[in-house]
Design a protein that fits this description.
alpha+beta; 8 strands
Length: 278
């Protein structure tokens, strides 16, 4: 009963704030394996995460799927899996991962159907070592965020991203701290957040580049939001080739079906009103 109550508390906070952090989610051995996998991607041509056994171990992690199943009742993998090393400078701004990124516009913002697509990102580098962090704007996945002072400040932050004025850069840093929550991570930490939550990779020092090493996957519950996201990532983000280039597609589908997360692969591009071009 205690474990169930604790899980419900986590889910309630996740739904309310739009994100949740799991510290030390992966052990040292797993961290080393995923770190080596990410390095391997950048040493090879035509690396395909969707046919890589180690990458799929991340996407099909039982503990992660258990939490998502408790949250949504039924979880689907959206065929979106990336091993990445990103370089970040001070000109970043907040963004969303969902197809319809403008609050209240498009099917992602259906007031009668809760949005239920999630980004899962696990880090395999330490914030203190590489100088990068993750910043999230709490509750920005909700329709009411559109009318908040935080949103106005976020717009200012975005429109001044190319400034070279040192005082404006300092002002941007102040605004960033006012509107967002900073997540400093260690290798093995996992963060889940709704795809329509504003977030950004940040840096700890002005005008210095920072890097991050991470695995990213996306999941959803039943319904149109997940179906739209899969269509978006495969056709609007041109990832359909990643599916088409899987050598053993039957085995890929079998793995997902075995874990009960298989989502039918859309066969054609579907029109999504107010879809982002980014």
């Amino acid at each position: 009963r205690y474990i169930k109550k604790k899980m419900n508390s986590k889910i309630k906070k996740f739904n309310s704030e739009g994100f949740i952090v799991f510290k030390n989610f992966f052990n040292i051995k797993e961290c080393n394996e995923f770190s080596e996998l990410i390095d391997k991607k950048y040493e090879q041509n035509n690396f395909n995460e969707l046919e890589n056994e180690q990458a799929l171990k991340f996407a099909l992690n039982d503990k992660m799927l258990d939490f998502l199943n408790e949250t949504f009742g039924k979880t689907y993998f959206t065929h979106d899996l990336v091993a990445s090393i990103d370089k970040i400078n001070y000109k970043y701004t907040f963004h969303r991962d969902n197809p319809c990124r403008r609050t209240s516009y498009g099917p992602d913002w259906d007031k009668d159907l809760n949005y239920n697509v999630v980004t899962a990102i696990a880090y395999f580098s330490d914030s203190e070592d590489v100088g990068s962090t993750l910043r999230v704007i709490k509750k920005s996945h909700l329709n009411k965020y559109k009318y908040s002072i935080s949103n106005l400040l976020r717009i200012f932050f975005g429109k001044t991203r190319d400034t070279e004025n040192k005082y404006m850069i300092l002002l941007r840093r102040i605004v960033e701290k006012m509107i967002s929550y900073e997540i400093k991570y260690k290798s093995g930490d996992l963060v889940l957040f709704y795809c329509n939550l504003y977030h950004t990779g940040g840096i700890t020092k002005i005008k210095e580049f920072a890097t991050r090493k991470a695995m990213v996957a996306r999941y959803g519950g039943s319904g149109k939001h997940t179906e739209n996201y899969a269509n978006y990532v495969l056709y609007y983000r041109d990832r359909i080739n990643q599916i088409q280039n899987i050598k053993d597609l039957k085995n890929y589908k079998s793995l997902l079906k075995e874990k009960k997360v298989f989502l039918e692969i859309p066969q054609e591009k579907k029109n999504i009103p107010h879809v982002s071009n980014k």
